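User: Please predict the structure of the protein below. I'd like the answer in structure-token form so I can feed it into my own downstream comparison script.

Assistant: Understood. Taking the following sequence of 357 residues as input:
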Amino acid sequence: MAKSLVIAYVLWFFGGWFGLHHFYLRRDRHAFIWWSTCGGVFGIGWLRDLCQLPEYVRDVNEDKDYMEELTARMRKSGPKYSTWRFGGEMVMGILLGCLVHSALPEELTADGSPYQKIVLLLCPLGVAIGIHLVGNVGREMASFKVAVVTAYLTYPVFFNLNGITYSTLFSAIAVNWKGRSWRRSKRKSGLCRRISILGLCGTLYLILWGSTLYYNSYVTTKDGEVVKLRDAVQNFFKSPAWAETKQTFKDLYAFYQIHGFGRIWEQIVESMDPQGESNARRVLGLTDSATQEEITSACRKLSRQWHPDKQKDHKAKKKAQEKFIEIRKSCDVLSDISIKRSERNKSRSQTKDRTEF
């Protein structure tokens, strides 16, 4: 079925940053590059597609005039040098090379580490894949052999001088010099196969980003202390907050076993504490069965205990003020809920009396 230029422009406008128009036009490598670089390096490639889409549509539809022009170019010479393609090879080569490097734990890549040779094996491979990916977009082909050999030869030489950038540069030059050729015919794959391949590539790409964040990212506490994200995650799974979350899921499952799916949504909403009632009771140290008298007593007691005027030290006073505000907010929340429930019960009682009358 012939592809429509109108549909291509609609997909370009609404989903171009994710490469939807390229996927529609069976340019799957192009689509992946756009998705992984936010529209071709933050929208630059997306804007260029505004002028390129008519040619892409003619290509996928194998327009007679277009194919005659293409055949003439193929017979005349090899693919011409393109600054856009060379720039794309540089971007993807550096991106994937750096991503592979950053996805490894710092302990493995640090100077003097016995595992540092892993970097020598994996980073050039990421560089070569990035260059090969861009080089094979459309009707052109790029030699993976040339890309990977050049990357492995140059990366160790510039290892201590931002090796990924230099390795990408020399690999891209080598591919554009000796590793380019025409794609005589396009292999047409089924939709399921295309989605599966793109899904696999996207998953691997996200795994690299996830590993980067997990192993080599940091969070800063309110005290200014820097903590590795992986340590923070491990501590979270040992924290009371995670224990409460697990207990909530267990309670939901138990509720489902008794009541089924019919009322599960109601229980989910209640477990999310939309009114803040459970959190307010926790702040005041009260149980769910606490009476109004117990709530009032707890509010008065804690307000006196944490009143800022009782503190002389500046830090202690600031902490007491934050706690005092939290206590007052919790008291206000429980007070509002109590008033609304009283009014609702009163209204139901009056309705019931009128019905009986």
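That's the full token string. The first strand starts at residue 140 and ends at 142.
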